[in-house]
Every structure is written in C-alpha cells, then in structure tokens.
Specification:
Elements lengths: L1 H28 L3 E7 L4 E8 L7 H8 L2 E4 L2 E5 L2 E2 L6 E7 L2 E2 L14 E8 L3
Parallel strand pairs: 1-8
Antiparallel strand pairs: 1-2, 3-4, 4-5, 6-7, 6-8
Pfam families: DUF4430
Keywords: Signal
InterPro entries: Transcobalamin-like_C (IPR027954)
C-alpha cells in the first residue's frame, strides 16, 4: 500500500512539473517581439512587425529577414531605403523596451516580449 501511494505521489508530481513547463513554453510563444521602424523620435512610423521568436534570436539577423537593411562596419546605415546622414548628425538609433540600447544590433539577443524601436533622428552631442 505504501508503495502505491509513493507511485501516485510521484506521478502527480511529474504531471504538475510537466504542466508548469508547458505553461511557460506557451507563454513564451504567445509573447511576440515587436519591431518598429520610425523617424524623428517616432513621429512617423515607417513599418512595424510582430514576430514569434524561433531558433534565431539575434536582432540584426531578424532585421535582415524582415526589412531592407544596409550596414557598414557593423552599423546600420539604412532601413527600408531611409539613409542616415552623418553630415546632418542624423543616425539610426534603437531602443529596447523604451531604454537606449547599449550594444549593437548584431550583439543583441532578443527576448520574448521585447519591444524594439529603430528611429532615424538627429543626434546631438
């Protein structure tokens, strides 16, 4: 009898833990990444996509799959045909969840639910 109770408790524990993991996976899959491309501090939205993360989580790779991107020396110089203009101090800058990014797009690993905004605007020093 004692062995039967132990087996039942073990089976219930396995079902409970397995159910919790499935819930986490479902939550992750249903929380897409949003990437917005804009100009002039988000005054004009150029494009926006919502992406379910799969195996690829590198921001630059995801950008290249979903937008027309040009880069030079690892820096994005054009998105969807909109060029930055160094003579006017107009550059592509990006934020992650409302905070300025502290790494380049090629070094950023997306997380479920991230809200990314690339904005083309004048940068003052």
């Amino acid at each position: 009898m004692r062995t039967t109770i132990q087996i039942i408790v073990l089976a219930l524990t396995i079902l409970f833990v397995g159910g919790c993991q499935a819930s986490t996976l479902t939550e992750e899959a249903s929380n897409p990444v949003t990437i917005t491309i804009s100009e002039n501090n988000q005054e004009e939205i150029i494009d926006e996509v919502s992406i379910e993360l799969q195996d690829e989580k590198n921001l630059l790779a995801i950008l290249k799959k979903n937008f027309d991107i040009e880069e030079s020396g690892g820096l994005i110089t054009s998105i969807e045909g909109e060029q930055q203009d160094p003579k006017k101090n107009v550059y592509w800058m990006y934020e992650v969840n409302g905070e300025p990014a502290n790494v380049g797009a090629g070094d950023y690993t997306l997380k479920s639910g991230d809200k990314i905004n690339f904005d083309l605007h004048e940068v003052s020093y």
